[in-house]
Amino acid sequence: MATALRCFRHLPSLLYRSSFATPRAPAACSALLLDGCRQPGHQVLLTRQLAAKKAKGKGQSQAKVNISAALVEDIINLEETSEDMQAVVEALKEDFSRNLSVRTSPGVLDHVTVVTKDGKFPLNQLGQISQKSPQLVIVNMTNFPESTAAAAKAIRESGMNLNPEVDGTLIRVPIPKVTREHRENLAKLAKQSTNKSKEALRKVRSKSVNQVKKFKSKVSEDTIWLLEKQIQQMADSATAEMDKLLAAKTKELLG
User: Fold this and answer.
1) The model's pTM
2) Contacts of 130 (CB under 8 A, 6+ apart)
3) d(CA 187, CA 185)
4) CA proximity to 66, closest of 226, 237, 221, 210
5) What are 162-172's pLDDT values in tens digits?
6) How far apart are CA 72 and CA 235, in angstroms?
7) What is the SS3 assignment for 92?
């Protein structure tokens, strides 16, 4: 009762202020309930965490979207999308480690892929690889002599600037001296590998976006927008990581 009386006591002043006050949106409107998701299995509460808007031009922030993967699992598996994108990044790391080194060692040739009539195989499964000197690596193809030519071709096309010489079932691989030109060629190969990885990443993103668009008739436009934004942010993060890898590898190769 006392609380009610206090409220009535302040009522006239509140009415006076309200007649001049500018309407304001509720402060706690960070969550959007998407009406288009109110179908069985698709009642989804998505939260948009929007960065403060700045003036157009330098320093403008972008909207950040954070969607719970569990809430949209009937539409798309965001965790799987993230794993697919990270797999592209990991493949680039492996390519840099195996194929782009200033100094060539026998281990670098281990995983060169050889295409044969029976399928694709790592070189170390077909031949015995050994280093005879700092400037020469030997690949003995005695166990699979029919794959000698294919192995030599794989080494030549590996992107390591190697020119193998076939002598019966032996493949001699001269190791080039570390010159400035060789370093620059390796840096160019690193750039090419990164561009190929980015193309693979774009394919993953496009595949995921197309999956989301299949639900246009079942969920709201806001839902589609949020998911596309989330997928793009994941792709942007993976791209930024690849750019850092390229910068570090280029610095290493050029010395």
Assistant:
1) 0.59
2) 106, 137, 138, 140
3) 5
4) 226
5) 899 999 999 99
6) 18
7) helix
